Amino acid sequence: MSKKKVLVLCTGNSCRSIIAEALINAKLDGVEAKSSGVKASGRVNPNAKKLLEEKGIWRDEYHSKTLDTVIDEEFDLVVTVCDHANETCPMFPRPVKKIHVGFLDPDGKGYEAFLATYKEIEEVLLPKVKEALFGMKKVVTQLKSGVAIKFSGAVQKESVVKMVQNCKTGTCECMSDDTKKKIKDMQVSGDDGEVLLELSGEVKKEEIEAALAKSKVIKSNCEC
Known about the structure:
Layout: E1 4-10, H1 16-27, E2 31-37, H2 46-54, E3 77-80, H3 83-87, E4 97-100, H4 111-134, E5 136-143, E6 146-153, H5 157-169, H6 177-182, E7 183-191, E8 194-201, H7 205-214, H8 216-219
Parallel strand pairs: 1-2, 1-3, 3-4
Antiparallel strand pairs: 5-6, 6-8, 7-8
């Protein structure tokens, strides 16, 4: 299967977009990222390079480059990581999906600012890229003992756990009271990208599918 291709676009292509490019390539299976700048500086910020080297994800191929060097390539997704790039994002020769996730520019600041940017990009941008490229899939199966729901793709285990906690405490509004009464237990297993939720009791598949249609964990990968 060919990899999904992502272009990370920034203004100078020296800090944020380079860090995002490296993180996507290192952390997201099945995805290949490149980066460029609207007004490329022509250099990678030394702190950005040092940070990526320390994290073990630096590649010598990473460099600051202008958009015209990659604009004719076919991308599945374009991500702008600064407001200026978002506002001036040019037209691409082929239709391409675009998302904007802005981050403060660490350029000119201390090394700690780069560490903070790295962490924020890893925690905020990567899930959004994964969701934009792959979405979230769910398979609901009726069992003799209840219902099993298999989530895959852009799903975080923490979100499913939170959804279950809300249902147990009565703060979840996606499931009817009658359905909640039928469920004896809820167990979550698996990891990010592939999560299994097992509901034991006399609950039916159709009831759970109706609840999932209202759940924010399906719509926005957050708690129910």
